[in-house]
Design goal:
Low-confidence stretches: none
Strand order of the largest sheet: 3-2-1-4-6-5
Number of strands: 6
Largest sheet: 6 strands, mixed
């Protein structure tokens, strides 16, 4: 199983908690890909020791520190959230799928069945994220498809868990710049910059 996490230095401790619950409930061999730009060598060493001590593999991938410097961020959404969108370009060509998970998730059971779901021609498999009633970020409680200008009753997913079809993303020449074009075009209507843009771009392929 291939798992992808993208973190800054401050979130490494959360990712170790997530990995602890992942390893507890999933006994298959797991390759953990870490995409990062702001994690020091000592912390990388600690992560490697922990992951390999459980019989799994650790593959850190450094992203250029200045990449996404102009991307929309705030105190809760850092530029590392965009790194997952580089997976099809930066993970080895031999990898055909990877499961991205936010570092603050707690895993309460096996994810192997989810990991092996057939893509059926889609680039992503993800979890539905219905609009929250009385969400202060969206005070008029518009359905997501209305807010984002999508076809009626389009599905809307949470980008914290994404099963990514790397092979198909490569075949379709997915380019992260397409996400930033959407963010720029729709910025007045976006609540969650990357998640909203992912839902728009992949609307017909998840």
């Amino acid at each position: 199983m291939n798992v992808l996490i993208t973190v800054s230095q401050n979130y490494c401790r959360y990712s170790l908690t997530m990995l602890k619950t992942l390893f507890k409930h999933n006994k298959c061999h797991i390759t953990v890909y870490l995409m990062y730009s702001r994690v020091d060598d000592a912390t990388l060493g600690e992560m490697r020791q922990y992951i390999e001590s459980h019989g799994n593999s650790f593959e850190p991938i450094r992203v250029a520190d200045d990449m996404f410097d102009d991307a929309p961020v705030n105190m809760h959404f850092t530029k590392e959230m965009y790194y997952r969108l580089l997976a099809s370009k930066m993970l080895p060509e031999s990898e055909e799928r990877v499961l991205y998970m936010d570092p603050d998730i707690l895993i309460r059971g096996s994810v192997e069945e989810f990991y092996h779901l057939p893509f059926d021609g889609n680039m992503l498999i993800a979890i539905a994220d219905p609009p929250q009633i009385n969400d202060p970020k969206c005070p008029d409680n518009r359905p997501h498809y209305v807010r984002l200008g999508l076809p009626e009753n389009s599905r809307y997913v949470n980008s914290g868990v994404l099963l990514m079809n790397l092979r198909l993303m490569r075949e379709n020449r997915f380019d992260v710049n397409s996400i930033f074009e959407i963010i720029e075009e729709k910025k007045k209507d976006l609540i969650y910059p990357d998640q909203d843009a992912i839902n728009i771009y992949f609307n017909d392929s998840m």
